């Protein structure tokens, strides 16, 4: 058997780029370290670039300097990028590119995703000051700034509300809504909402009072009377329309009969001499 021949020429090793931590999560206003390691075949001083992908692709580090908002708050060590005091705007996908012009394959890249965590903010709470008994009601709570998105909990008189099959209300912990199909007097009280996520301590809005009131008798009479008057007006309008329609029909019939009347022809004159004597004029 022939032995396998070993290659006599040099083995080509292209530039290789990787990241020991391709997903980075840090809190807002702290430092984010985006690791990038590389190895080249021959080129001792490859070109290093960092780019951020968003709606388009923007440069972070190019031609040995930082660009845009990264100037003055970022630094490089080898190919590893450190961004100081990150904000939510820094979240996104970053690409480390290493170009070794002397290597057989001269371009390599690694992707690093940065998520900047934002603790809960004080949510906006919408609680009406009063509502009538039997009305439907929806209370709203929203924290648009927290990352990851906040979940919500409603409190009445400082007691957490948990919806059950027998509860007169429903709670959506993701949307922050508290819904009542029909409000009763027992639903009156002080309401507040709390937002929370894994990035920090929960935050709550100021408690707001909800009053549940009954319809006053005078308003009930007013609504009933207005409904009765409206019904009477509609009935009168219908009667007038019907009467006008029938009257127009009779008028049309009389007009048509008058137009179709033809007077009878005069009787024939049999005695012409007598006719002339009777109808003669004196001059």
TrEMBL record:
Query: Pfam families under this entry?
Result: Ig_3
Tell me the lineage of the source organism. Answer: Eukaryota, Metazoa, Chordata, Craniata, Vertebrata
- Gene3D superfamilies listed in its UniProt record: Immunoglobulins (2.60.40.10)
Annotated membrane-spanning segments are: 219-243
Q: Where is the Ig-like domain?
A: 10-113, 120-207
Report what the protein is called. Junctional adhesion molecule 2b
Q: State the source organism's domain of life.
A: Eukaryota
Entry-linked InterPro entries: Ig-like_dom, Ig-like_dom_sf, Ig-like_fold, Ig_sub, Ig_sub2, Ig_V-set, JAM2
A single GO BP annotation from the record? leukocyte cell-cell adhesion
Note the SMART domains from the entry. IG, IGc2, IGv
Give the record's keywords alphabetically: Membrane, Transmembrane, Transmembrane helix
Q: Which PANTHER family match?
A: JUNCTIONAL ADHESION MOLECULE 2 PRECURSOR, JUNCTIONAL ADHESION MOLECULE B
Species, as recorded: Gasterosteus aculeatus aculeatus
Cellular component (GO) terms are: cell surface; plasma membrane; protein complex involved in cell adhesion; tight junction
């Amino acid at each position: 058997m022939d032995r396998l021949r070993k290659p006599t020429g040099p083995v080509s090793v292209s530039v290789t780029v990787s990241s020991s931590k391709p997903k980075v999560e840090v809190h807002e206003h702290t430092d984010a370290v985006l690791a990038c390691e590389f190895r080249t075949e021959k080129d001792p001083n490859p070109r290093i670039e960092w780019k951020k992908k968003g709606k388009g692709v923007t440069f972070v580090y190019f031609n040995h300097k930082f660009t845009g908002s990264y100037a003055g708050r970022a630094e490089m060590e080898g190919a590893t990028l450190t961004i100081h005091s990150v904000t939510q705007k820094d979240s996104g996908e970053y690409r480390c590119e290493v170009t070794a012009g002397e290597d057989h394959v001269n371009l390599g890249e690694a992707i690093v995703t940065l998520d900047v965590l934002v603790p809960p903010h004080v949510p906006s709470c919408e609680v009406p000051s009063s509502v009538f008994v039997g009305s439907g009601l929806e209370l709203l709570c929203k924290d648009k700034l927290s990352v990851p998105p906040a979940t919500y909990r409603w409190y009445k008189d400082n007691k957490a509300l948990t919806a059950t099959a027998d509860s007169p209300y429903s709670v959506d912990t993701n949307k922050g809504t508290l819904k009542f199909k029909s409000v009763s007097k027992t639903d009156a009280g002080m309401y507040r909402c709390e937002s929370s996520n894994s990035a920090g301590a929960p935050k709550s809005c100021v408690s707001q009072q909800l009053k549940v009131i009954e319809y006053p008798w005078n308003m009930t009479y007013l609504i009933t009377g207005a409904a009765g008057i409206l019904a009477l007006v509609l009935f009168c309008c219908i009667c007038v329309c019907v009467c006008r329609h029938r009257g127009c029909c009779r008028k049309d019939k009389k007009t048509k009969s008058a137009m179709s009347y033809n007077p009878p022809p005069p009787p024939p004159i049999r005695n012409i001499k007598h006719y002339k004597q009777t109808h003669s004029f004196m001059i």
